[in-house]
Amino acid sequence: MTTYTGVVRRLLLSSSPDNRAIERLQLSFYLADPYLHSIGHAVGNVMERGSTKSLQFTIWADTHHPSYEHCVLLGQRFMSFFQACPSAFRWLTSLILQNLTFGDSDISKILNICTKLEFLSLTYCDSVIDRVTGDDVVLTIDVPRSALVAVEIITCGYAGVDLIQAPKLQRLVCANWIGVNPPLRFGNVPHLHSITLRHAALHWQRPFLLSHCLSNATSLSIMYLNFADQMIWIEPEDPKHLSPIFSHLRDVYLYNIFYECDLNWTMFVLEAAPSLSNFYLKLSRHPCERSRCEDSAKKVNVPWDQTSPDFKHHWLSLLEIVGFVVDEKLTKYIRLVIELAVGLKRIRLLDQEPCARCNAMNNGQPPSPTRWRFPVEEEEKNTIRQQLVDGLSSPVEISIG
How confident is the model at residue 122, as a pLDDT? Predict the structure, then answer.
């Protein structure tokens, strides 16, 4: 850090008003004393000139796998840095943090001071446990005058995330939460158009209704849900409850659905999203149980037989399935989509990507082809294409591989 700090200071000093201006400044450094204030003041001096349009801090812990006590210390160290260098943070547009344990109101202080902040990423972060209840703290984002456009909350220790006011927020990523479901609650987020949820469900987390979680997110156009090969953590529901939320939805990704799970439940998403154009599914067959831990929820099938008898989808253009195999269940599902999506133009069927851990379990060989077989020969592919459209008047183009 001594060498790094010296280089940063020399670089920023060389960008005096008489020399070329720095339009974009991205700094990555460890949260280590006594260097932070020196970096912060040097950055602040440059930012006060007003010629820098973008400032990003990526800040790492000063040790691998820090203990909880050390994360508390790092959180205090960051807040000391933040308070000592207001000129730098006032101009900050992107902040990426890892392994910090904050005080109760620290995040609110950061967001209220960093009024130009557009991107916030928290990984392995949390807040000190509530001393009265002993519970984890809910992360509250209430910034009605914020410039915040994108937020990432990944593997953090919060009980949940409450987005009360984030009027410019457009993209949200939430992954690997520890609290009970649902993990999010939305208030005023009128411009939120993209949401990504990635999670391997834990045994204390029950499936939740998307309508309860996303009730105020009515501008969504992209939804990505990744189930990490484990329990499906959303509960199918009456599409009419989701239609106001999904009215603008164009692209849906339902990824890493465990292979044994029936797929008909995905129809409730299709029926609730009349403007959906692209539907991406990824099936997961991993004997290595790559995402499983001792706290994982039990994987159970998701039954669904409530599709409206007169339902037809008129805008779906593409169905893509990654992890396709020769399988009667998949054939029936694809035929169902073709029957209901009357404007479907293309179907892409792709093989699952190789997994080194699964191959290692089979002495370096792929899983048994008698269980999971992707068609290779063109003659077999043509047979599958015929089976998928047999008796259906559909001009859909089907590509395999």
Answer: 99
pLDDT at 187 over 70: yes
Query: Where are the domains positioned within the chain?
Result: 1-17+25-192, 206-229+244-401
Q: List, in order, residues 6 or more apart from 158 with CB less than 8 Å away.
A: 126, 127, 136, 137, 138, 139, 177, 178, 179
Per-residue pLDDT tens over the stretch 224-260? 999 999 999 999 999 999 999 999 999 999 999 999 9
Q: Which token pair is 163?
A: 């987005």
- Residue pLDDT, tens place only, 26-73: 999 999 888 798 888 988 888 888 778 999 999 999 999 999 999 999
Report the first-to-last Cα separation within the chain, whole angstroms. Answer: 49
C-alpha neighbours within 13 Å on the C-beta side of residue 75: 24
Q: Distance between CA 118 and CA 341 in Å, rounded?
A: 38
- Report the C-alpha gap between 89 and 356 in whole angstroms: 43
Predicted TM-score (pTM) of this structure: 0.94
